[in-house]
């Protein structure tokens, strides 16, 4: 026994010595090897350095040799960190292929098809402000989180006018142009699928593609504006541009550093103070639904300006101002609903609750036009039917919150559906015959989501991503390899990650997760715990299903192609049911707002049992997703993979691990391999001959069957051997397509030049003939114009000469006529003067005769009555011809005599101007005779009177010799202002008393 022990120890010592010797030899070997390895690298060389910073991230990083010595090398990696490598660590250093140093536009051109090469290529291009990279026809877009000036009209023109887009740098416009050209060239529907995580820039890429397509489509119509205008509205209300699933739980609950839907913040930032006052709104921090994530501002986004953009988009999409205000009113009511606070109570030994802040209820009642007491009743109690009677029972505080949140989610969800329907109605065109028409669709689908707490919405979203990735895998890998096999090609298959097992577990197998969820949701007693037990027992052994580590966690895990994600089942059945309780339907019925009533019209028409039997939300979502996938299968797809470079949304920060995860999820490495080894371009023989027959004619390829003609063309034009022919399809590389298209374009260009030359010659000759005819016509017209102008000038001179002569003749005639007229007028004036003088003489004569007759009559009258009448009686008779009776009554006889003379003269005033001295003298003998007889009378007073009369008449006649102008003026003055005769009696008035009168008479006699 002792000997055996000694032998055993000796064997152990021998083995240990051998091991030590081997280790020493190995160490020396590695040391010597490292020395040789260092000899291969010099300063400035680019190398790969293997690092293990993360447990499952062992992708080498690019580095540059800064210096080296006998112990090791000092490297500077691509992130700027210095690393000293020595000893065994030198084994982690490998040489870098030259194609990986500066980066390439198309990663198929990389000399190394490794994850490190792809990651470094994206890193180099990202820091060179080149955010787009091709993998064949797959575009990888890294979000720069800053605006580059590469999307203007100049870039649109550059990509739209380039026939070979491979000659231009990778761009989202190049993908859009390729899809557009493929659709027009092959007359087949095309689709552009944009995928990536949330925040990777999918929405912006979609906007850019839509903008490019509206420009190159050549139809700048209102419809284009409406399509582009729909983006800001749907993005603000749903944070995504799809309507397959709205994450309604986000309205009532947000994760830390996460905002609610943008529309709420933009509403508060864009409304005026008066509008806020009408809606009882303040700031975002004052509302529970907006403050849970403690994130109120999104960096790089102006909420006020975005609200203005939403308003403009609504106008373009024909939202009326009334509809816009109703939308804002409902959003304001949702914010006020979130501020309702409940207080737990005990009522009749039952849990109950009451609303604390009545002001929020009053605001909701005013906005939604619902009685406030009905809001209290709907949120703090529930109704049940028992024995045909409606019974109200109180509910606990948590139940009240769930009812409030359900009401908010239902209202917001139906508002979102109405907005989408309104947009679809605005942009939809009248149905036309779709035969022969092709379409190009753009799909912006939500990215993979993995939060701290994942629930029903994340399960649906990630299932959609699994379906989309399955479509990508089928199209890029499975269909590719299956077609190679059908065509009998020799093909080395490419290993890829197939996610079909995950898709089947979630929705394909008979008892898949969604089917079990729907089944449990229809049971009245179904619960989240029973659902978890069923799926665990059914899929617990599946490789893609992860059981919960403890029952208290109430969760399960799914191994997605993007990684393992844990889902919490609490509340998952309620979200799947998505039903509206009868109490909430009754609350809506109380509203006087027609818009709100119409949004819930479907729920109004259904009974409680009908609502319970309606399809679950997951069933509706899967049905919509199946329709989408069928549509995609009927199209030729193009893919845009959006990459989020960092979690901070900061520019020029490239997180290698985050980007590597996204590249791994999307299968980019496998895509590069299969695209490089595969044939991206393929035609049937008929399509190939029809498209390139012009090249065959140029190369004088004889007419044979289509396969032989295709092969002959490929042999003559495609000198390499990387193309192949199958049973009915010819397979080409990307550069083969470029060669064929360039040759075809060159021949077409030459043919077009010939046609242009012939057509230009024909048009030139035709134009020359037209010009000659036009020249003759112009000459004829010009000559006619000159002749007419000369004739008109002569005619104008003749007309002017005639006018001068006629003017002279008429002037002479006018002078003669004027002289004759002047003479006639003078003769007429003389004749009128003679006639006037004659009339005046006749009038004077007649006046004299009348005056003489009156005097004679007076004399006769006085003579006949002289002896019988007394002096007083004669004076009274004579006073009849006077004008002033008052003077006669006073006995002022001298004045009466004068007045009597004036009266006689006045009696003939109208004819006084006709008297002259000759007339007076003709009557004077008779008057003197009469006067003599009168003087012999016993009445001396009468004699005096008669004497005064004669003297006055003589004075009046003496003034009748004035010229005609003076008489006319006197007549005018006499008409306007009558005056007394200009007569001054030469007699003095007789003095008063008998003695004075006698003395006066003596003097007069």
Automatic annotation (TrEMBL):
Chief localization: cytoplasm
GO cellular component, one term: myosin complex
Bias type Basic and acidic residues, positions: 966-976
Family of the protein in this entry: Belongs to the TRAFAC class myosin-kinesin ATPase superfamily. Myosin family.
GO MF term list: actin binding; ATP binding; cytoskeletal motor activity
Signal sequence range: none
Protein name, as recorded: Unconventional myosin-VIIa
